[in-house]
Batch of 4 targets.
Target 1
Amino acid sequence: MLSRQRLFWRLRPYDLPGSDRVFLQACRDNCAYHIRHCPGYAAICEHLGFSPKRLQTTEDLAHIPVIPTLFFKRRALFSMPEWRMAMKVTSSGTSGRFSRIGFDWGVILAEAPMVVNLGFRHRLVSPKPAHCVILGYKPHKSNHTGVTRTMFGLTHFSPPLSRTYALQMVGGAYVPDLDRVAEKLKRLERSLFPTRIIGFPSYLWFGLQRMEELGLRLKLPKGSRIILAGGWKQHCAQEVDKGTLYALAERTLGIPEENINELFGAVEHPVFYNACRRHHFHIPVYGRIIIRDPDTLEPLPMGRVGLVNLISPLMAATPTLSVMTDDLGYLTPGERCGCGISSPYLTILGRVGMSDIQTCAAGAAELLGKGEAF
């Protein structure tokens, strides 16, 4: 699928109008591939009367069969044998179930230029070595989660001098040790090299609170940066607004707000969404977002709140061309941001109740027969 490579090698990451033609071609090719190689996906398309030839304009993207992320948590759906895949990763499984998503080798070739391009665009790439403190899982042979892979990958935006993890495997389970991380940060304050803190916003919040309890106030070296990836998930009851979190980070670590980056994505949709300097998630050329009415699933206009539908022709091993998340959000015209990026930006408000998503997922499963759940 050369159209996928042409899309992901584009140098202007937020020129949506300029990328529409190649994006539509990549979606047509991706959809046709999954129909040929995945009987389950073909059955869904046939039931809905959808053909890749229907994709003639960007408005037609709304007609691509939408598969809820919850469906992938119930069923394994692949478009190639496992021996041909580069890897298989899973979602975090905070709801008790997890998605299994296959990555083909073409994804690696497509992701690399996307990540490098956006990394330079958002000042994440630096030739200066840095110490990395990861507020997430230390890689382990039993851990196949996408977020672990992502956080490890983020340590390579600058040459990593060291890696310290907040969550380490102990006795077959991950155990947090925020006190050890706090002590490590205290030592890094005297380093000649900057520190990069990478991880969940929830663990950053808990760690900073713990440092305040210990009376630790640091001034990390110039150029130190925080990169947040992943949501609050099982800690949503303790979630705080960005302003409060960033202010505490500057007060406790000496890292100013302009050196805090935030990323958004999903294992079922591993497109690299970077927050701009005003902390908004603008849509890059590698994906498109449709907001849908939770009751009718019809597309909603800009500014209306609904379910977040993510579209990208990135994956060939798993049919994730159009996936429905359980997030509620809305789109805003890019011009209203003021950061200089013209593409619309996504605001996530939280997670919706699961009844509508489960109904949609059950409908897709019904088309495939009973099969084997996992």
Target 2
Amino acid sequence: MSASISLVIPTLNAGREIGALIEALLGQSLVPEEIIVVDSSSDDSTVEIASSYSQVRVELIDRKEFDHGLTRDRALKNSAGDIVCFMTQDAFPVSERLVERLVAPILADPSVAISSGRQLPKADARRFEQLVRGFNYPPKSNVRDVSDVTNLGVKAYFASDVCAAYRRRAYLELGGFGRTDMSEDMLMAAKTLNAGWKVAYAADAEVYHSHNLTLRQQYERNRAIGRFLERNAELLSCPSEVGEGGRLARCVASTLLKEGDLSELLAFGADCAARLLGNRIGRMQARKGSK
């Protein structure tokens, strides 16, 4: 099967990153027919740099209009590809075969609607963040259907628009992302599986992407995740994500102990506490209907 490919990158003040990312995408073994940059009123040189490439179309939106779901939905509907890929401005291809490998599961199997890639830690990632990425993004690819929810729980709904590809026909058939302030990819993966389509993880489609979050940032991120999970509990009906979090914590802590890295172990413990507290507070706020 051959297919046309579009690639969308939402941006905000990406001047230091966008040029190198576009260059890397234009050097791919499979170059997208169109690259669309959707910029949320950047204050820096993002638009100027992106616009300097004839292969790139820049769409401008007001910063207040940005929504993780609706902004990507609009970009997809304004694109032409049979397959539409999404990347974030702070992800960078590990090799020139990223796009080729990312879309491969969709091209190989007509029942696969979504394919997402593997995220490797950046060079500046602290040690426990490296281990967290390794746990969440293993080296083995997989293809999931709705029967996997029982065994995998929330992991069955894994997808990440940091680096992902969508089959246009399936996306439109399922109604698209809709309005959401986060995790539009996870919602779409859940809708996809529940409708009988499959979701793939292409471990060989690799990007560098990681963050060294402060405890406050980790708390706020997981408070938002907690609200999201509680508000979408019916769609994401599956075993609790807390069990998966426990497995992650044990795996990372065990490795840090073996390495004798007590400072990182203590830092990771604090990070886990911020995650857990944020998640619980977010869920409680969602049940009460507060922000």
Target 3
Amino acid sequence: MTLQQLKYVIGVSEIGSLNKAAEKLYISQPSLTTAIKDVENEFNIRIFNRSTKGISLTNEGKEFVQHARQIYAQYENLLDNFDSSKKRKKKFAVSCQHYSFCVKSFINLVKKIEADTSNGEYEFAINETRTATVIEDVATMRSEIGILNLSDFNRSYLQKVLKSRELIFTPLVDCKVYVYIWKNHPLAKKKSISFEELQEYPCLIFDQNASSSFYYTEEIFADREYSKIIKTTDRATNLNLMVGLNAFCLCSGIISQELNGDDFIAVPFKDNENADAAMQIGYITKANTVLSNAGVKYLEELKLYLKKETKK
């Protein structure tokens, strides 16, 4: 088996079509089919189910591709770190829960990459998504890095999940809890806001999919009873609902005004039940992997931004 064959298997698994994969990988379809069959024969497995509707991964194929993606990603990172020609298209992907500071740090990374003319071409991705998908993306090496939070509510459960997927959680910052609202919200002028004061307003919660565990929720107090709940899937919708319905969400207080605008504010949350309640934001990586240069630089940008914002 060769690295090129691994690349072909990964490409077909992501595209789901031999014809389209062959076109994207700059190889004829018969040669691509032969390369995949050679790998299947070498390991005595069937990676793909083939039908008139197309191809899909078998169960053992899913496991094989997960390992293949990890091996090939490390090969690319090796080239990224030590290839003096620097002519390769650099690749990097990060998956995160719904945090504007992740996007801001990504923007800062790309700007620095663009400013360095020696970096050449790149193909980057940032995925704001559900907690389970953040974990899955990093576990299968679709993303090098995942950003999520742990709290007293979910820590024990998520740590077990991360360990089972061979993922390592590295803390970045511990945050107090804030109420994120529109600047003209009836409670906007208060120095702190209690849970009881919020009960007449809709609470915004990011939808984690009905099939996901209760502990995958992003919100720190998901186990409490809210009288009004609206589930959403993106931050832009949240901002609209904050204006239109005086809705709120509980957050870390680390907000990028440059991206979200100055029409929204974070007010300290007064928790009468647990005064020490906090959320720990960190990043996850696959165990025993080496990050690409872009991955290292992204974490540098993230740490710089968080350090600056938490000093305010």
Target 4
Amino acid sequence: MHDLLISMTEFFKSMGVWGLALNSCIESFFLVPPPDFLLIFMDLAKPEKALYYAFICTIASAVGGAIGYAIGYWGGRPAFNFLFRNHKDKFEAVEKLYNQYGSIAVFFSAFTPIPYKIFTISSGILNMNFWKFFIVSVIGRGARFFLVSIVLMFFGAWIKQYLELIILAVTLVIVVFFVILYKKRKSLIKPLPEVVKNDDV
């Protein structure tokens, strides 16, 4: 799997800007490497084009999100189960987040490491208002990609010097994020109250 992800990243990389756009689009509804890796590489190579690359990522990812929405809308749960056969239980979790947070759940999936593709397809299944979904997706994806590009545009030279340490730090942050998310999720799951039998009354 690791070799496959590396091969896909190299494939997108060989296509330049078109590869960045294709990677960003497909990642919004299918299992391919996140475009962040390619975006970081291109930003470091040409920091003067960092904002342009972020713009490409944002638009292409939002278009991919719309494709994911259409897959969910027309394909329903069977399409979700086919694409995420090892994560069928995720739909129920996404549905709960929608019921609790609405479109804000889409924003956080677009901005954070939470798999955005699961939310794009689920949004179609749950028949969320398309334009609300699309606008929130653009804002979330744009905030994520422009934040990365702006940081690299101003601190690219320094980041190159300490790249290995930064990668380690980012990895630790992501791990801590998911640990907190997992613990919070467990704390929200409360045991069901015991049913009182008629014989015991």
